[in-house]
Amino acid sequence: MSARLEAAAEALLLLAIVLGPWPYGSAADPARYGLAALVLFAVALFALGRAIAAEGLPWLTLPAAALPALALVQMTVGASTAPEWTAEAGLVLAAMLAALVFWSDRARDRAAAVRLAGAVLAVCAAEAVFGAVQWSLAPDRVYGHATPSVTTPFGSYVNHNHFAGLLEMGIVLAAAMTLGLARLRGGATPGAVGLAGLAFGLVAVQVASRSRGGLVALAAGLLVAGGLWAYAASRRSGARLRAAPLAAGILVVLAFGLAVVPEGTRAHLATILPGRPDSSGDYRLDVAHDTLRLWTAHPTLGAGLGAYGDAFPAFKTAHGEVRTTHAEDDALELLAEGGLAGVVIVVWLAALAARGLADRLRHGRDPFRKSIAVGAAGAVAALAVHSLFDFNLRLPANALVFASLLGLAASAREPGRRAGGRALPAAVALALAALGAASAWRAAGAVAFERALRDADPQMQVAALDRLLGRHPYLAEAHRARALAWRDLALGRTGFAGPRLERAERDLGAALRLRPAWGEAWADLGWTRWMRGDLAGARAAIDRALSLDRTHPHIVEAREQLLARLDAAGTPRTDTPK
Questions:
Q1: Distance (Å, rounded) from C-alpha 195 to C-alpha 175?
Q2: Local structure of residue 57 (DSSP, 8 states)
Q3: Which of 251, 293, 541, 573 yields a CA-CA distance of 20 to 30 A from 97?
Q4: How do the pLDDT tens digits run along the chain, 578 residues long?
Q5: Are 124 and 169 in contact (CB under 8 A)?
């Protein structure tokens, strides 16, 4: 029974890895929480199997559980700037870390490790083919569509950096497996040649995506994988590490990718060399500086996991025309959201993973299995480096591959210490099943919310949102949308304006209880109160909006317009909040 449950869990997780990238990297809420639900239910089966067998769970379970637990602590003590988003981040984190724990145990089996690596390479290859074809036909579209969210698309991703993030993991994994298979078979076999061809093909498409961060990350990942491979080989044969062949091989791979892309792409990638080539570099540096200011305001527990989008605007000093929802640096974003507590948990998790990898490299006797571990570690290093100047780990599809490969790299030859016997795995299975149900419910709410907004008529929107919020009252955006619909219905209808504006204000209050630092909702509340005749309340709300989001051009403009109307009504103007 336990073996069947574990096999079912593996099949579901492999399915999640293969499906994850296609709905725009699973970035939109329906796909994000649907993917998380699938992963959580899968690992719940694994935990149930361990409970039945009374075998306990991998020791890695403890630090993995600590990070979602931090989200719960932040909400409990009021440390989160946006409790709704912290709860949702906890769901996704639980799913990704559950996958990591599963593969750290399951990938001790060679066949399971090969299946995981094969699934990652298969989805990377499919994305590369799709991306290359779509790029040649319509480089500014995804699935034939162009929307405001599609900025610099490639493959099924709306941002080419995230496409590059996925492929760089596949490239490093394929390159390491090529060496391992050649070593195992004693030469260039058809399998090794096929893996090498796949690696070179992925390199060509990854470089064609024009991701400068992706190129740097690819080089870093190959260096890490090469160094680990040389270390593992030297441990077995006693030979010294040879840096020259390693460096030459990496240069050949990168040179091939640069050689097969157009001159314009090479020129764009060459702008890495000057350091700060354009406004993109200035933007990233400014955001990094302001993110550190956010962290210093919440140094220990952070501003709330997942809450960066609401917490950051109060500390933003420039680039108001850009809605900054991520720090363009996953490490800084973790520091700002999780504080020192989050960093300590991640270091704890990384240390235990490194211990498992070291055991595999020191004592493993199968060169192909070691090459898979080396490739997984190099792939993880590549995306980690890329995440120093992007937010790849906030894309659920990429985060799932990253977590799975980290688990693969961390899988030691022997089981090691176990946590619990029968009771702990049973409790974990119940907890993961409950979180999976919550994530599935959140995905259903996201789908229903999108449907509710399709009808532009305010009255129809109110009716649809009434039904939605009756089932999903935790959706702050739905409360705000219904408030704006009620406000639209109040315009020009004197007899019904009062009750409708009262409903609008009540909905905005509900939204702000879920996301207290949401500047746009505070600005909406200011206008709603002005329409109700509450001039003092209107001023207080609009001032609050500006203090939370000083650089938002629409909030700045709305405040000036509202203050002008308050002046006309004879209400004294207040100073701009500091």
A1: 7
A2: E
A3: 293
A4: 789 999 999 999 999 999 999 999 999 999 999 999 999 999 999 999 999 988 889 889 999 999 999 999 999 999 999 999 999 999 999 999 999 999 999 999 999 999 999 999 999 999 999 999 998 888 888 998 877 666 789 999 999 999 999 999 999 999 999 988 988 887 778 888 999 999 999 999 999 998 988 999 999 999 999 989 888 777 655 455 555 566 666 677 767 767 766 676 766 666 766 654 556 778 889 999 999 999 999 999 999 999 999 999 999 998 888 889 999 999 999 999 999 999 999 999 999 999 999 999 988 888 899 999 999 999 999 999 999 989 999 999 999 999 999 999 999 887 777 777 788 999 999 999 999 999 999 999 999 999 999 988 999 999 999 999 999 999 999 999 999 999 999 987 666 788 999 999 999 999 999 999 999 999 999 999 999 999 999 999 999 999 999 999 999 998 898 888 888 776 655 444 43
A5: yes
For residue 491, CA distances in Å to 188, 484, 494, 544, 561 come to 75, 11, 8, 25, 18
Give the integer Cα–Cα distance in Å for 145 and 521.
30
CATH 3.40.50.970 matches 441-568: no
Q: Give the residue extent of every domain in the chain.
A: 2-434, 441-568
**Cα 374 from Cα 232, distance rounded (Å):** 9
Asked if residue 382 lies in contact with residue 224, where contact means CB atoms within 8 angstroms, the answer is yes
Which pair of tokens denotes residue 102?
């599963």
Which amino acid would we find at residue 553? P
CA 421 to centroid of chain Cα atoms? 33
Q: Is 148 exposed, middle or buried (0-12, 13-18, 19+ CB in 10 A)?
A: exposed
Residue carrying the six token digits 């700060």: 276
